[in-house]
């Protein structure tokens, strides 16, 4: 009769291999150097994907969703808050570009992953205190008080 520990050992081995693949420091369970940078750099290239989710990010980097949330918590934020902030910053930056003046606010928001133009405008106003239209107008006029 088998003792049944072979399955448990296999599961532990699998977990250890996953940690090694993800770049985790097995001694203290802190992220390996460069993990945060790899994840944030990767996410920066995917900001325009409205369906980008924490699970997608975790899967891409071979780590658990829980660990991803813990990693962002160590940096004083959440995954969703960080992604939203980066999307808003990218949209805000694009709105200041003279070459983007012909693009609608909805198109700019959509380019940076906001599937709903109203949500983009509300979130933008909450973050910057003005609407995207006001931001663009002030930027075009050289009004630095809005910035």
Automatic annotation (TrEMBL):
GO terms for molecular function: DNA-binding transcription factor activity; sequence-specific DNA binding. PROSITE patterns: HTH_ARAC_FAMILY_2. InterPro entries: AraC_XylS_family_regulators, Homeodomain-like_sf, HTH_AraC. Pfam families: HTH_18. Residues 37-138 form the HTH araC/xylS-type domain. Keywords: DNA-binding, Transcription, Transcription regulation. The keyword DNA-binding applies. This is Helix-turn-helix transcriptional regulator. It comes from Streptomyces cupreus.
């Amino acid at each position: 009769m088998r003792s049944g520990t072979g399955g448990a050992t296999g599961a532990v081995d699998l977990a250890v291999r996953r940690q090694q693949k993800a770049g985790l420091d097995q001694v203290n369970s802190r992220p390996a150097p460069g993990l945060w940078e790899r994840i944030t750099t990767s996410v920066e290239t995917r900001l325009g994907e409205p369906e980008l989710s924490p699970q997608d990010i975790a899967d891409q980097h071979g780590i658990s969703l829980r660990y991803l949330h813990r990693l962002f918590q160590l940096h004083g934020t959440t995954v969703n808050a960080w992604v939203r902030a980066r999307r808003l910053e990218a949209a805000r930056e694009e709105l200041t570009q003279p070459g983007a003046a012909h693009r609608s606010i909805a198109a700019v928001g959509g380019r940076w992953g906001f599937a709903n133009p109203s949500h983009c405008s509300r979130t933008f106003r909450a973050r910057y205190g003005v609407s995207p239209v006001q931001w663009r107008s002030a930027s075009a006029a050289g009004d630095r008080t809005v910035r």
